[in-house]
Amino acid sequence: MTDAHETGASETDAPTFADLGLGEPVLKALRDIGYETPSAIQAATIPPLIGGRDVVGLAQTGTGKTAAFALPIIDRLDLSQKQPQALVLAPTRELALQVCEAFERYASHLKGVHILPVYGGQGYGVQLSALRRGVHIVVGTPGRIMDHLDKGTLDLSELTYLVLDEADEMLKMGFAEDVETILADTPDTKQVALFSATMPATIRRMSQQYLHDPEEITVKTRTTTSATITQRYLVVAWQQKMDALTRILEVENFDGMIVFGRTKSVTEEIAEKLRARGYSAAAINGDIAQAQRERTVNQLKSGKLDILVATDVAARGLDVERISHVVNFDIPTDTESYVHRIGRTGRAGRTGDAISFVTPRERGLVRAIERATRQELTEMQLPSVDEVNVTRLTRFDDRITAALGETARIERFRDIVAHYVRHHDVPEVDVAAALAVVAQGESPLLLDPDPEPVRPARGERTRDSDRPREERRAPRAGYATYRIAVGRRHRVEPRQIVGALANEGGLRRDDFGAIQIRPEFSLVELPADLPKETLDRLSDTRISGKLIEIRPDTGRTPRRDGAGGQRGRDGEARGRREERTYDERPRRKRDDDRGPRDDRSARGRRDDDRSPRKPRHRDR
Predict the structure, then answer these.
(1) Where in the cell is it found (predicted)?
(2) What are the strands of the beta sheet with 256-260, ordered from one edge?
(3) Domains, the chain, with CATH or none
């Protein structure tokens, strides 16, 4: 192996993609995506691949290696040829699908490029139909590729490019024999690119035997994220991202925020929807003139704008002190972009928050980021309706408090209210409530509670039968969950619970966490260190005329006695049996929400879609 060299993860005077010899259709696609400067592995790998050299690339997942081999292949495809010209082998179907999606993005300005994912678990019919029509690029797992070769349904006689992606992972999963068979049975004239995070002896021998005078490129990753940035992620379906973003904006205490989208059109769509929902938001991307970009950034700095929606390129070099949050509406596919994005907050020792939206199929990207940055991302839950409502009530209180400070204006309106009360014989509190309705307008102050799951009849199972009947989640840090004996049957709302407990217990609005209202009772998060005297005061509290009987929640629902009344909580009998909640099992996802599974690969399975009854030497 010759011409081995090392390169760092970031270098000064880095070239642009245009400097690497790529054609205009590919460069245009990269501009659409928002890529401007190639990563270290891309800058070192693309030129020799375009020049026809075999390459061995040693780089961690998340360094941008997919583009390193995909861009030269797309750039040199012969679209008139119908037989497969490029074959990419990947260890799992999840990675194979990600690579296919990347190829499709990079080929967006080339007409008639056909890319086919081939993996076990997918019906042969779909793959056979596509192969008969003709494909230019095949991305697949080794076992299913071998199946097609054995059946004679995949013709690789015209193959020009072969890529081994994550070669060390393929060997760990037992694909060595299949990979060597494919290498040996494809044309000797093909160009080979092998990418691996490590260089075990088997891969070294394979590269020496099947690659011709390869150039070895090693990328030393120095990818780190600031310890002052809290990193979280939310698993959410693609269609629900906008609603998830809105709820996060409701409950997060942010100053300035950047929301990152993958494309220009996505950034414009997000900004438009945020403005329609009452937020001050603007988009910046590659189509925005420099003067407009500067005006928008200055508005963010001055506080006239709260949310900036941007692509990677548009946000380069952006340093605004009041950016407290970064949201990855589309999680980036390479670690360098992730580090760059979240680095817009938590600068110069300040703290910051980074939240990434992850679809079920993208969970592997989270693990790749954690491995590359050596920092764990914490999974968060979508803020509940009750959490949103508590936040809205707090802000409503703050607006009232601020208005009460304007003495002159309050005096003027006090006379107007008094005049209305005298002439219409209406209580002042009703007049105040009516004025709040007028001020609020058409938008409701509080969200409606989430709908109750449909309960099956006795002995009947539904699709949701595996869901806990009364799902309880752990309270947030520093809080404990308390149970009160009033619920939806008593027509209580979160605002009534907050008001009653705050008044009787001397609590503040920020003492309340999530509130979950159930048919017969409610669960309220309160500070875990609540003094005994406060609990004693709360024990006499009534809501809707009913004593709330506050107590720490144990996760059990006491049965009522024979007379229909619940026995006391001070050691009295509670009945012979207690009704327990269902096992806390995750809700089964519907097929259309379920992404590719890769968990079996961690147990040494060859491919994540093989049945254990089938032969172990091949994925199906």
Answers:
(1) Cytoplasm
(2) 281-284, 307-310, 256-260, 323-328, 352-358, 229-235, 378-379
(3) 2-220 (3.40.50.300), 229-382 (3.40.50.300), 386-440 (no CATH), 479-560 (3.30.70.330)
